[in-house]
Amino acid sequence: MSKLTQDFIRPDQELIDAFKDITAATAHEAFGRRSAVDSAIKPIYPGWAPHLR
Questions:
Q1: Is residue 33 part of a domain?
Q2: In the chain, how long is the greatest CA-to-CA distance?
Q3: Is the pLDDT of residue 53 over 60?
Q4: Is 21 within a domain?
């Protein structure tokens, strides 16, 4: 069974804006290759990420 967590502390808008032009891969590398999403995690609905088909 899946678990969806919705009650987590969200970052301030200022922090979000600071990362708006940085790719996920760049951020992952900058944080010492931590905080990346496991590659086993896939979209819930087919078609949300056509490049994964």
A1: yes
A2: 35
A3: no
A4: yes
Round to the nearest angstrom and report the end-to-end CA distance of the chain: 23
| 25 neighbors 17 (Cβ within 8 angstroms) | no
What is the DSSP code (8-state) at residue 52?
G
| Residue 46 in tokens | 């087919």
The pTM of the full predicted model, rounded to 2 decimals, is 0.43
Give the range of the structural domain holding residue 46, as residue numbers without chain letter: 13-52
What is the domain count for the chain? 1
Spatial distance between the Cα atoms of 53 and 32, rounded to a whole number of angstroms = 29
Q: Token pair of 15, please?
A: 């922090």
pLDDT, tens digit, 9 for 90 and up, residues 5-44: 888 899 999 998 998 888 877 888 888 877 666 767 776 7
